[in-house]
Amino acid sequence: MSPKNHYDTLGVARDASAADIKKAYHKLVRQYHPDISTDPDADKKTSEINQAYNTLKDPAKRAEYDALLANPYAGHEQAGFDGGFGGYHYDDSRFGDGQPFGSGDFRFDDIFSAFGHAHSGRTQRPSGPVKGEDQHAELAIDIAAAYQGSERSFSLDMPTLTAQGEMTYTRKTLHVKIPKGILEGQQIRLRGQGLPGYNGGENGDLYLKIRFREDPSHYVKDRKDVWQRLNIAPWTAVLGGHIEVATPAGKLHVTIPANSKSGQNLRLKGKGIPAKEPGDLYLTIHIDLPQANSDADRAAWEQLAAHYGARG
């Protein structure tokens, strides 16, 4: 019986499209997630599924892998150094709070899809120490993490070189500290967490590029200005007043000008992302009309209509 290969692991044909491979991967990684699967080998199978996907999703790695399947005795010298099908495999079963496919400020469902291009293109071993390649990935965080700072842990199956120069994977837990005031687009550097070096060379670094998670209640503009919708009652809009508003910067007391209109913006200087030069917080007014759900409600609205109609 021929040994199981990456196509077998994902349950796809060797001529499967990239879309079919991705679809099969997402189905399997959820099926064997250790938090929900009763399979005693769920953890091992998840690792195998991740490794298979990491290889087949990359056209160059897939072509090299296909070549090795066609001629398994070719390319051993290169695969030992190049990492053949190197990269990271994310293990979403090792969150600090045990939640699948996300943890607090983080979203890691596809974090490993940005990893892994392991020394491609080299055809022979160098004689001296070579530093491992740096790796890059995007990390989504909630805006609250940028206001308060945050810290999380997650696990990856990380590529390492054996004493014989062959690439293998080792489970490792990484700790990431999100500094207060971080801006979208900035990177967090995890020293030595990139691909392994060769001939005694040091490991590369892992860079996590920050992206703010989409949120229906507020969004970030120009990297550090925060915009938030503010619902107010019609009488508050007409008469003005002082209200308390829950914002990413905490609960703030806000003055509503009389005769405010929907779409009007209130600027709170320095209440945006608390960077070295803090951004501003903009509250966009939305007048929230109460519903007439009773006779008393309708009578009140009719009285109001009569009053303003007479004035018109």
Labels describing this entry:
312 residues; Helix Hairpins; HSP40/DNAj peptide-binding domain; four-stranded mixed sheet; three-stranded antiparallel sheet; 8 helices; 26% helix; elongated
Description:
The protein is an alpha+beta fold and 312 residues long. Among the domains are: 6-63, Helix Hairpins (Orthogonal Bundle); 135-212, HSP40/DNAj peptide-binding domain; 218-287, Urease metallochaperone UreE, N-terminal domain (HSP40/DNAj peptide-binding domain), CATH 2.60.260.20. It has eight helices and twelve strands. It has helices at residues 6-10, 18-31, 42-56, 59-70, 76-82, 143-148, 234-239, 295-311; strands spanning 89-91, 135-141, 150-161, 167-178, 187-190, 206-212, 218-221, 225-232, 241-247, 250-256, 265-268, 281-287. The strands form four sheets. The chain has a four-stranded mixed sheet with strand order 7-8-12-11. A three-stranded antiparallel sheet has the order 1-3-4. Helix 2 runs antiparallel to helix 3 (42-56). It is elongated. The protein starts with 5 loop residues before the first helix and ends with a helix.
Distance between the termini: 89 Å
CATH architecture of the domain at 135-212: Sandwich
- The gyration radius over C-alpha positions equals 27 Å
Instruction: Please write the CATH class name of the domain at 135-212.
Output: Mainly Beta
What is the percentage of strand-forming residues? Answer: 25-35%
Structural class: alpha+beta
How would you sum up the major sheet?
4 strands, mixed
Q: Can you give the helix content as a percent range?
A: 25-40%
Widest sheet, order of strands? 7-8-12-11
Element pattern in H and E: HHHHHEEHEEEEEEHEEEEH
Mean pLDDT, to the nearest integer, reads: 77
CATH fold field value of the domain at 135-212: HSP40/DNAj peptide-binding domain
Number of strands: 12
